[in-house]
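Field: COMPLEX_INPUT
Field: COMPONENT_COUNT = two
Field: RESIDUE_TOTAL = 921
Field: MODE = joint
Values follow.
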Amino acid sequence: MVRYIIRRLLWMVVLLAIVSTVAFMIFYALPSADPAVLRAGRQGTPELIAQIRHNLGLDQPLYVQYFTYMKAIVLHFDFGYSYQNSANVREQIMSRLPATISLTGGAVVVWLAIGLPIGIISAIKRRTPLDRMTMGGALLAISAPVYWLGLVALYLFSRDIGVIPLFAGANSYQPLTQNPAAWFDSLLLPWLVLAASFAAFYARLLRSNLIEVMSEDYIRTARAKGLSERRVVLRHGVRAAITPIVTVLGLDIGILLGGAILTESVFNIPGVGRFAFDAIGRADLPVIQGTVLFGAFFIIVANIVVDIGYAFLDPRVRYS
Amino acid sequence: MTHRRPMIARRSVARRLAVVCAGAAALALGACAHKSKTGPTSSGGGATTSAGFDAAVPGSDQKKGGTLKLLSTESFEHLDPGAAYFQLDFMIEFATQRSLYYYKPQDAKTPVPDLADGPPTVAADNKTVTVKLKHGVKYGTNDTSSSVNGKEVKAADVKYALERGFNPSVANGYVATYFKSIVGADKAKGADLAGITTPDDYTIVFKLTQPLGATVAKALVMAITMPVPKSYAAKFDAKQPNEYDAHPEKQAFSGPYMIKSSAPGKSLTLVRNPNWDPATDDRPAYADQIEWTLGADPNVSGRQILTGTGVVNGDTPTAASIKRFATTAKDQISFSPQGNRFVNINTQKKPFSDLNVRKAFAAALDRKAMQLTRGGSLVGDVATHFLPPSLAGFDEAGGVDGPGADYLANPSGDPALAASYMKKAGYSSGKYDGPAIRMLGENSSPAKETSAVVRRALESLGFKVNLTSVEQSAFYSKFCDVVSQLKKIDVCANYGWLPDFADPYAMLNANFNGESIVPVNNSNASLFDDKKVNAAMDKAALIADPAERAKAWGDVDRELVANVAAVPWFWDNIPNIRSKDVHGVIAQWNAAWDLSYMSLK
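Field: COMPLEX_OUTPUT
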């Protein structure tokens, strides 16, 4: 197992290097703006632009720029500074990470708490009105775009602009360390909105897996042994049916830690996703690179965790 | 709003306007012709225009206290007064620092002394400008133990502020344009400038290589003249990135407010500057504290402003918000005329090197439809020439009706006239029959829709159009501001300009003087280079007398229209919205709230 983890971690380094190279090349290959010109402003003289280009190292060959950038990351964990506002990229990402983790973590709890029970109930109450109702609701939730759902939720339920004032509205995010109660209050609605489509998807996925698993021979054997239906479903059925859920969950968490852009935008939660989105519009390469690398890091780590988790969930899986 | 990004989709304008009218499809408010150019119908709080919109001017019943809140989608770019070049940045700069001169909120044409103790003295030869400074203006810092805290502003601080603008670590975007005539500026890199001297602590003298004193005097309203004490700031300026910009809360503040905290992309808080002496300043500084939340969704913030308390917009509201306010809360929305938009056509390349083809294109263009793509008459008027109503020379160039060119007479376009000009150009059928032309446009709304109207006009004249649509910043920095690219482009559809200061020079010279054509960051996207017009501009820049100057620049504007240097189509009217309990005051020169004049009711 240890050798496996070490091997995966080494692969992670290789993957991150590939991701950084691709992001770097895409930035230069596509017709995005010239950072030196943007920094110089609309009246910047050619001499000023040349100076800025020199200061930013943009007058160096591409491979030198890339090497310099990667060297700073590897040796000093330095992601450079924003072309847009001179802010330190690492500090910016780190200061935004707690908001993204808060949003993702809470939403994961909500969607698992809603999605898994619904999936199980729908599977064991197959073709009943309850099944049809929950699956119909799930289809609706999956179909609703997060941005639209966020706006509707705010217009309906936020305390400042909502018709039924229940939750804190947009622009109200408070860090956990500053005010735990306000943190919880400000994230309740975003959690529900972000979790809605995930919960629906997980419910549908678990339902179909569980229906398939429940027709397996070993389930029939378990029943024949006289185990209670509850024990058969939860201990033998769900445990096997949940493996694909863990795979997807790992990826989803990784992706959301890289930034839940739409939810962060509509609720103005100062997370990494919004940071990346703004940077793309402004051709802010250091921020784009930094956020892409962080996103890739989380996705890869989540995959490793998922793979390790398999060994515990599924006795058939062993790593050597 | 307008960021020196377009006033216009705001990345195209000289200085950037914050993003405007996100996603604006036509607002269908054509019936609500804007009246923002008319004066208020009453004085004091709640003054409105004749159309019922908020006049947003100072009142006699404003009172001190409270916390004013702003919401914006956009973030600040540079809060260093030497680097600031964006509408939002200027809102903060002019509340926390003091320039030599500034514009009072309701008068965007007349600079008044701020740090200066009177109007600038321009020598008879127009090559020396002298400014006297007020006594008793002091710096405030967050760190009260700082050596500069409580120290008086001296002329040397203004000198250093200008000098550091040439320092690549500050990288001011306009100092080399408006102050290039200062002796030594052509080779300046941030060190001592021989052309700026301080005979005593309260006098600063600018010596120029050319007789451009009148233009330099006008430019002394810019943020680059805000004082920066060298003894304090030099250590920040030596770092890359510059810490005076990266950590604006460390600055020495001369204005009524200080930046207490700044979280890039998230928030900014202003508090009172304890060392600010109101006896030296006309600004009332009513609010005790100003809190700015960045990154807000524009659709949500529009509603929060409408139903909330103490909140105003920081950047331009969405089309839906404008419509909602204009129909249900007219007294909470105001409009400010600012800047101009025009379609650039390559005047050095066939077929548009032919004046008659350019006239045909101007005649074919449906500027009324283009106006609708931006939100209709509420957010701007169909332009008939280049100088907008907010600038001197507007009336001299023909006012609202324009200079009288027949090809701009019909705002909805005149196909028959267009065909007649095409015939004059040698296209006997009235249609172009040459090879396809290349047009650059933007790929986001509302500029995308504007490009579609331009394309339709070209196609109506027989042109086959190859349209390249790109993201706004790339539109300028990779294509329409790069001469090597412009040589391969026939039409740049989405150009706009917000003048840096209230003078026609700042509007016309950069866009249409042949001398402004430079390989990169070129702002003359039509590549228009007419010796007669260049000479007229050079001459107009030297004139000091306001009336004569306005007349000269008005004549330049007429010449530009006669030559179809580009096709003007829109004079922007920037909307701003506020909560009911806010007394809003617009700084007309910046088309944005003047934080030093705002108050809570």
